[in-house]
Amino acid sequence: MEITKSSLKRSGIMKANSVAINNIDEYIAGFPEQTRKLLEQLRATIKKAAPEAEEIISYQMPAYKYHGMLVYFAGYKNHIGFYPTGSGIQQFKRELSVYKGSKGAVQFPLDKALPLQLVSKMVAFRIKDNLEKEAIKAKKKNVSKVSN
């Protein structure tokens, strides 16, 4: 799923005239207690797997940046959406097959424990993926400088 403002409005994450969320604490505070607990568990797992990642709000959702965007997450009425980009979903396709999802997202039901070990592995994969992409870009840039 590509994350766009219109898709967020359709999904109910972002209302047409909603007040902007400024930080992840504010975002999580807007949910019922059980959902808040799960969102905090997910947040802590991501932070532990990517301690150098920057916490931000992007598209009105909690997100993490480290040499590019790593992952996003969002709370819903019946599930928590986790968005590790297409490469993260593809890499863990087999493990994620028990959940609803799409090519860039997975839904974790609120009535089941979060697969925190899997989330940790996905975040670690996304860090590696971002660093590899960055290295490829740097190499291309250096090759371009040499040929000029």
Describe the structure.
With about 150 residues, this protein is of the alpha+beta class. It has one domain (about 5-145): Aspartate Aminotransferase, domain 1. It is built from six helices and six strands. The protein has helices at about 5-10, 25-30, 35-50, 85-90, 95, 115-145; strands spanning about 55-60, 60-65, 70-75, 80-85, 100, 105-110. The chain has a six-stranded antiparallel sheet. The longest helix has about 30 residues, at about 115-145. The relative contact order is 0.15.
Q: How many strands, what sense, and barrel or not for the largest sheet? A: 6 strands, antiparallel
- The structural class is alpha+beta
Report the CATH topology name: Aspartate Aminotransferase, domain 1
Uncertain ranges: 1-17
Instruction: Count the DSSP helices.
Output: 6
Helix content: 40-55%
**CATH top level label:** Alpha Beta
Mean pLDDT: 88
Percent strand equals: 15-25%
- CATH structural architecture: Alpha-Beta Complex
What's the structural blueprint in terms of helices and strands?
Layout: H1 5-11, H2 24-29, H3 33-49, E1 54-58, E2 61-65, E3 69-75, E4 79-83, H4 85-91, H5 93-96, E5 100-101, E6 106-109, H6 116-147
Antiparallel strand pairs: 1-2, 2-3, 3-4, 4-6, 5-6
Helix pairs in contact: 3-6, 4-6
Please describe the structure with a list of short key phrases separated by commas or semicolons:
148 residues; Aspartate Aminotransferase, domain 1; six-stranded antiparallel β-sheet; 6 strands; globular; disordered N terminus
